[in-house]
């Protein structure tokens, strides 16, 4: 074996169908927040987003940015502080409240009329609105359309059988001239059931190619010590930028 070969050279695992019937319920996701099993949260923000921020924002101001399955992502504050308008959706009310508390932001809450039992949490400054609901109910709201979408921990968390429906909703929320940034993970899916789920390059193409130009910005070795408990020995994160065809 060539000693210069790196983890990034590993071919995609052929059995990409092995996770296709995996299902996590909304209650299971909510329980992760209650029990503190939120290792997917990145306190320092996403390093690849920082690195490619200029390619994503293109120097534009006053953008409307969407965070699907946002959790308490610190990047929402980054964008708001830069003068952009941020909208997120998250099933966990606890996660949303933790975001506002940890970022020292005052907020209000109100019911979402179109979705019984759902709420929207809004920063007092008015530039961050987080919808607490099932993302598949979102089209019932008048949420508007977006210039940018930052999809990290979202497509990889959606049950594999729901991906097409999820992507259709995401693309229905885009404005003309949109930029959609997606981070996905590759590993041996026979060794870890997910989430996060394995998403192949071929799957990305299948889901987005008909509507978007697809550009791979970077692939990085993302394996950390904690991932070894999953039983995997490699983990590659890929960052894609989608633009309008």
TrEMBL record:
GO biological process, one term: xenobiotic metabolic process
Broad enzyme group: transferase
Principal location listed in the UniProt entry: cytoplasm
InterPro entries: SAM-dependent_MTases_sf, Thiopurine_S-MeTrfase, TPMT
Reactions mediated catalytically: S-adenosyl-L-methionine + a thiopurine = S-adenosyl-L-homocysteine + a thiopurine S-methylether
Keyword field: Cytoplasm, Methyltransferase, S-adenosyl-L-methionine, Transferase
Oligomer and partners: Monomer.
HAMAP family: Thiopur_methtran
Family to which this protein belongs: Belongs to the class I-like SAM-binding methyltransferase superfamily. TPMT family.
Protein's name according to its UniProt entry: Thiopurine S-methyltransferase
Gene that specifies this protein: TPMT
